[in-house]
Design brief:
mainly beta; Methylamine Dehydrogenase, Chain H; five-stranded antiparallel beta sheet; four-stranded antiparallel beta sheet; 31 strands; 11% helix; 29% strand; flat; mRNA splicing
Length: 569
């Protein structure tokens, strides 16, 4: 307080006497109020008085949109003011309208829940319901929807029991003593006909309908195609009367040996091309055991037999199918072979005379065909068809002797394993099934979410492994012994086969694995390390099949969709 008193003095050099005099004379605002002049006892002071602001008429009043009753007369702007904040400039009238559901504003209606459900179900069942309009003109008896049905049914709802139907009179005889005439609950109705026979008009309509169905479901039978074969060489028999099926001895290679070459090598050069097919090759097969002949099936509906040694001529052409050849298979002796075609026929040919011995069909497309490898069962062969079945035929009688029907897609390959006691099939259902011979229930089913369809399978020369061409551009290896387990350490990659059933093969000493691909290239991998050793452009189109010669160390055959068969060494 002393500091405030001295604050604002003009001269600092005043005397102490003057300062003492000022201490005695204090300012009026620092002195206590005199109780005589105080107004606090006579007046009440209001801290927040009601003050009318300037331009009070411009301040709008807000209306709660949930109010049902307003105690004053609001203006138009107050009633239609936005609920929160300023009005959105781009909203439509429909968007501005108040809503309590996604579709709009729903007012509460006082209606019984059962009555509402009753009318809703009646409308969905019969097509009509009571008119829900509530006004002075509504009488509660009018309907909406199908008015004719409402008047016919007298406004019946779904919860009202239907009218009892008139029961037909039934003959009765409940007397158990009447042994011959006792009817019980099995008596006939009055005027009941025991045999329903169509009249002449109904019979004509039925015959017409059945004939149409029969024509629609029947595959039109073509006229029998001329089955012929053409011999292209003059010296079909040698000086001893032996045909071209007899393997020559003067080649420097023992074709009758069961032992593979001691060591195989990679082929380096293209040494021959067999030409004669007009369209792509679909399958090639060595002559059994000796491999001195080569059989090829093509999309030009013909099968050709070629020489592998000597002049490498085309020996014979077999013609007898209407559509492309899908698969071919020799018997063990090489005297006969099967051809499976897209014309739904499997034909058994005599390889020496060129005659057709038998024809087999189930009116389904055969996709693979194979003789039973046992010498005692050479009269049996199996075929995988488009209707998911594996069918076994007897060539002596022409009858089907067994059907294996467990796959969920068309059967792609059949491979005999385990000394021919079992066989393995793959299918378009991306699974593999193992069967005991002549038992139509699969003994093992292999399917994995990571597996793809495997349209080509080859058994290794030692019989322990199966190489499967998988359509995810891989070759996967399965054990061909007891467990049939996939060998995940051996996977061969690098080629492109998705969409093509490229046949693959092993070298005779199991050093290499060879396969074609969709771009026409031929690939050779090392069997032990799965390393890609060699690849080269073999064909212009798809290289659909590769075969390593079983008695030659470095010779293999490739066949492509360009119609050519090439020999490499």
């Amino acid at each position: 307080m002393l500091g405030l008193q001295t604050y604002g003095s003009s001269s600092e050099g005043e005397s102490d006497n003057e300062q003492r005099g000022r201490e005695k004379e204090e300012p009026a605002h620092l002195k206590p109020l005199d109780t005589k002049h105080s107004l606090s006892k006579s007046l009440a002071i209001v801290a927040a008085p009601e003050v009318v602001p300037i331009g009070a008429a411009a301040v709008p009043r807000t209306l709660d949109p949930t109010l049902k009753e307003v105690t004053y007369n609001p203006k138009f702007d107050e009633m239609y003011a936005p609920v929160k904040g300023p009005e959105h400039p781009n909203m439509t009238m429909q968007q501005r309208a108040p809503r309590n559901t996604l579709a709009g504003y729903v007012e509460k209606a006082h209606i019984n829940a059962f009555e509402f459900e009753n009318q809703r179900r009646t409308f969905h069942t019969y097509g009509y319901a009571l008119d829900p309009t509530v006004d002075e003109t509504a009488d509660g008896q009018s309907f909406v929807g199908d008015l004719q049905s409402a008047y016919d049914d007298n406004g019946k709802t779904v919860f009202e029991p239907p009218k009892a139907k008139k029961m037909r009179k039934q003959e009765k005889n409940d007397n158990p003593e009447d042994v011959e005439g006792f009817l019980g609950p099995w008596g006939k109705f009055e005027n009941e006909l025991s045999i329903a026979r169509p009249n002449e008009q109904e019979r004509a309509e039925l015959d017409e309908l059945l004939s149409k169905r029969h024509k629609r479901g029947r595959i039109p039978e073509d006229k029998p195609l001329e089955e012929k074969s053409t011999l292209h060489i003059k010296d079909a028999y040698d000086y001893q009367g032996r045909s071209y099926l007899h393997a020559p001895h003067d080649l420097g290679v023992n074709l009758r040996s069961n032992a593979p070459p001691p060591k195989c090598f990679l082929p380096k050069a293209h040494i021959h091309t067999w030409t004669g097919h007009n369209k792509g090759i679909s399958s090639v097969r060595w002559f059994p055991r000796t491999a001195h002949l080569l059989l090829s099936g093509s999309m030009d509906c013909r099968v050709k037999l070629w020489e592998v040694y000597g002049d490498r001529r085309c020996i014979r052409t077999f013609s007898g199918h209407r559509q492309a050849i899908k698969d071919i298979a020799w018997n063990n002796r090489g005297t006969q072979f099967l051809s499976a075609s897209y014309d739904r026929y499997i034909k058994l040919w005599d390889a020496e005379t060129g005659d057709v011995i038998s024809r087999f069909t189930t009116r389904k497309m055969p996709f693979c065909v194979k003789f039973h490898p046992d010498n005692s069962k050479q009269h049996l062969f199996v075929a995988g068809t488009s209707d998911k079945k594996i069918i076994c035929w007897d060539t002596r009688s022409g009858d089907i002797v067994q059907e294996y029907d467990r796959h969920l897609g068309s059967v792609s390959t059949i491979t005999f394993v385990d000394d021919n006691r079992r066989f393995v099939t793959t299918s378009d259902d991306k699974s593999m099934r193992i069967w005991e011979w002549d038992i139509p229930v699969d003994m093992k089913y292999i399917a994995d979410p990571t597996m793809h369809s495997m349209p080509a399978v080859t058994l290794a020369p030692n019989g322990k492994w199966m190489a499967c061409q998988s359509l995810d551009n891989k070759i996967v290896i399965f054990s061909a012994l007891n467990r049939f387990k996939m060998n995940r350490k051996k996977t061969f990659t690098g080629h492109m086969v998705s969409g093509y059933a490229c046949q693959l093969d092993f070298s005779p000493d199991m050093s290499y694995l060879v396969s074609g691909d969709g771009d026409g290239k031929c690939y050779i991998w090392d069997w032990k390390t799965t390393k890609l050793y060699k690849k080269w452009q073999a064909h212009d189109g798809v290289c659909i099949s590769t075969l390593w010669h079983p008695h030659e160390a470095s010779k293999l055959v490739t066949a492509g969709w360009d119609g050519q068969i090439k020999y490499w060494d």
